[in-house]
Amino acid sequence: MILAKLRLILRDSPIFFLILLGVFISVPFWAPNLWFIRIFIIGNLFAVFALSWNLLVGYTGQISFGHAFFFGGGAYASVLLNKYLAISPPLAIFLAGLMCGISGFLLGYPCLRVRGVYLALMTWAFPLIFIGIVMYYGGVFGREMGISGYQGLSSSYTINYYASFVLLALVMFLTIAIVNSRLGLIIRSIRDNEILAESVGIHVSRYKVMIFALSGLIAGVAGAFYAHFLKSITPELLAVDMSILVIIMVIIGGLGSTFGPVFGAFMVTFLNNYLLYISELRMMIYALVLIAVLFLRPQGLLPWSPPIRFRSVK
Amino acid sequence: MTMALLEVKDLSKRFGGLVAVDKVSFEVKSGEIIGLIGPNGAGKTTVFNLLTGFLSKDQGQVIFQGNDITKIKPYQTVSMGIFRTFQLTASFPGMTVFENVKVATFGKTGGLDSDRKTKESIELVGLQECETLFPGQLPHGYLKRLDLARALATSPELLLLDEPFSGLSVSEIKGLTNVIKNLQARGITLVVIEHVLRELMGFANRVIVLNFGKKLAEGHPEAIVRDEKVIEAYLGKRWDNAA
Amino acid sequence: MEIFIFGLTLSLMYGLIAAGFALILGTSRIFDLCFGTYYMLGSYTYLVFYRVFGKIPALFVSIFIVGILAWLIHRILLYPLRTRPIVVMVVSCALAIAIAEGITLWFGTDYKYIPPMFEGSIEIFGASVTYQRLFAGMIAIFTLSLLWFYLNRTKRGLGIRALIQQSEAAQLAGIDPKNVQLTVACIGAWLAALSSVMVVPVFSLSPHIWLDATLLSFAGVVVGGLGSIGGALLAMVVIAFAETTVSFLIKEGGFFKQAVYVAIMIIVLLVRPHGFFGKKEEA
To answer: Residue A206 contacts by C-beta under 8 Å, 6 or more apart in sequence?
Structure first.
């Protein structure tokens, strides 16, 4: 009862959103220190990453267990473009995103042939191959040490912040626009019942691959941005930890909504930074929160998340 | 002699050692209602699957409106003007009734016309009050109507209905029959797979009987009913008690 | 020649792991990504206890402890979530990472040395093989035979096989899936722990081997087919030989180990999604 009321208030109250917006826009002004801004920047970027996963999984039903491939891949691509080809960071980020989009397009095709758990397995494998390459060609990729000594986007935290905020806003608008459009209806139908969608004339494979590519592109941009902000990257960005992390973010926040993944991303980012003292047990905390959410409120923590659940067997 | 809307020649499909469909040939003329009947396992749904590209054909040719559509893919059938329903009701559970139908309009109609077409189709089957509900909230009979609304939204010329009456009450069946006759009046051609023979025989122009994948007989309902081979195929089942 | 011997022993050792995983998967469709964790913990507990209890008792202690852990994880988390396989994967993965983190915290990330149970080596056909490898292989054969015996000749085993093949019919016949599933989880974990203590001394121990082990098991099951233990074993032979060959032929091929499993898995997934001996259709 209370929950339903809360839902109504939040959804129908633009004031809440305006306040939220105001808070976010003015972060650099009221932040107590640079560290705080940094958390928000990372939060923004992870939110974009989460939205990319949400777009793929929440709307076409294709489970990606290896999204770190795009995030980390985008990071490496952009860094290498900048370091060895002297391409400026903004352009490098853009190109990295493009490259990830194209990879998403190419990888999307083999992924059409597998479903459910098998798809999860297959996508799990992608980042591993990339890691293998990173380790083998250590000279270029820097092995476990990673790469550093390349340009950042800007030395000013404020600029970085607004850039990341704009990115997040853009991706959120994009997501909302897609979901409420014809395209949104089409991909939701694919998620709900692929065979039926096919039989009403929807070219399912084309859309699946399209969204796979788009999701990869967005994740790639987020990863590239992240790389240029941190000024150093390691293969950790490609690890299964990263893939699982984005899944956890979205599940906690609520799969299928637009604000859910953003909320989840920020929650994880805050936990990440304020648990510094128990930093080695981060995943344990995430796992606990994840389990709590799954058992108590599977649709995610946000009050107005739509009723999307993972496909049930039986 | 009007050209047939649909010509099927020597359609065949086997699954390993089992011959599901064996050199089935028939014609459907524009504006007809064809009944496709036969005992369970005779291959009727398989024929539908083959016609619409859900299954690959081992052999055979399918010509629709003069075009060879033998190699068609499922999502292309709609733009050609063919739509098929499934035996078990299918729907998009995460979308409202209105959205369920609207998706189906994307194959042919675009932009603003979509909404208009969607409303039209929903009204034709009488689901106006349920537009904002989800399929999970609808009773079975209504889900069947949703199937039909979706079918209509694709502006089909040829409608392939797979057991539309299954699970419906007597009055619902009568209602659906009226809708079907209505569709024929609007120029849509139909092929209907059914087991509720009494009803089917009432509105079908011609009936094709399948058994063990082969075409057993073809003709007007009255003739089919008296055909010895058909009676034998249904062994022990008299057609007028088959409902 | 070395390749042959090493490949053979490796397949046996891997076979043990895969059999355990295939068993769990076949009976309940639960993709327990913690499987690699059982493997990893098997060795770590052995490391902790072998000085206290002696080598062989420590082996049994580790197996026992890991079994209990698996039982707990399945009972509390995975069994209740069994209707949503993707969720199971996510949760077990998160848990596995969490546990690995814990182990890192306690032991550090450096490669630890585990003393083999059997010291020394022997020459066979010109290849130098350590006793550890040899005995690992033999113990693998012994255990697998034991497993075969259990599955095919005992009442319980029959129940397990029935559940794998026809879940609903088996339940109708009075077989309790929950009971079986938990039992199988234990057995699987035992196999993992056992093979861990046998195999790890040959290589080296660090927290992240859980990933390798899990990946390996997956590859085995995917190639061999869901629900088929024999298939998984055969798959392991192929994979083991592939890995041995690669590491012998390519310098620093160690990094490519994972890539090899992964590549094989992907190819099979594309060409024959149900594996070569898969019995059931995936939903």
So the answer is: none
Q: Give the structural domain span for C119.
A: 18-207
Asked if B107 and A192 come within 8 Å (Cβ–Cβ), the reply is no
Closest residue in C to A295 (Cα) is C81
User: Tokens for B235?
Assistant: 């062994």
CB-based contact C98 A283, cutoff 8 Å: yes
The burial class, CB within 10 Å (0-12 / 13-18 / 19+), for B2 is exposed
Residues of chain A found within 8 Å of residue B102, distances taken between Cβ atoms: 185
Helices (H), C108-166: 131-153, 155-165
Query: pLDDT for B101-124, tens place per residue?
Result: 988 888 776 667 788 888 888 888
Look up the pTM and report it.
0.83
**Chain A CA closest to residue C87:** A310
For helices A282-296 and A240-253, the axis angle rounded to 10 degrees is 40
Domains held by chain C: number: 1
* Cβ pairs A/B, distance under 8 A: 73
Residue B209's DSSP bridge partners are B37, B217
- Angle between helix A204-230 and A34-60 (nearest 10): 170
Q: What are the sequence ranges of the domains in chain B?
A: 1-80+193-243
CATH topology of domain B1-80+193-243: Rossmann fold (3.40.50)
Q: Residue length, chain C?
A: 283
Overall average pLDDT of the B222-238 stretch: 74
Q: Which residues contact C151 (CB under 8 A, 6 or more apart)?
A: C157, C158, C160, C161, C229
Amino acid at B96: T
Residue of A nearest to B108 (CA): A201
Res C34 pLDDT > 50: yes
- Can you tell me the ipTM of this complex? 0.81
- Contact between C102 and A284 using a beta-carbon 8 Å cutoff: yes
Neighbours of chain B (3+ CB pairs under 8 A): A
Q: Distance (Å) from the C-alpha of residue B103 to the closest C-alpha of chain A?
A: 6
The span from the CA of C5 to the CA of C281, in Å, is 36
Please tell me whether residue A74 adopts helix, strand or coil conformation.
helix
Chain A contact for C94 (CB, 8 A cutoff): yes
Nearest to A305 by CA among A256, A264, A262, A270: A256
Cβ burial B109-124 (10 Å sphere, 16+ → b, else e) = beeeebeebbbebbeb
Closest residue by Cα to residue A28 from A160, A154, A215: A160
Angle at C8 between CA C7 and CA C14, to 5 degrees: 85
* Contact across the interface for B90 and A191, Cβ inside 8 Å: no
Residue C179 lies in a domain: yes
**Contact status, residue C22 vs residue C232, Cβ threshold 8 Å:** yes
CA pair distance B193, B203, nearest whole angstrom: 13
- When pLDDT is cut at 50, 70 and 90, the band that residue B236 belongs to is low
- Say if C232 falls within a structural domain: no
List CB contacts (< 8 A) between B74 and chain A. 198-199
| B131-158 per-position pLDDT tens digit | 888 888 888 888 888 988 998 888 888 9
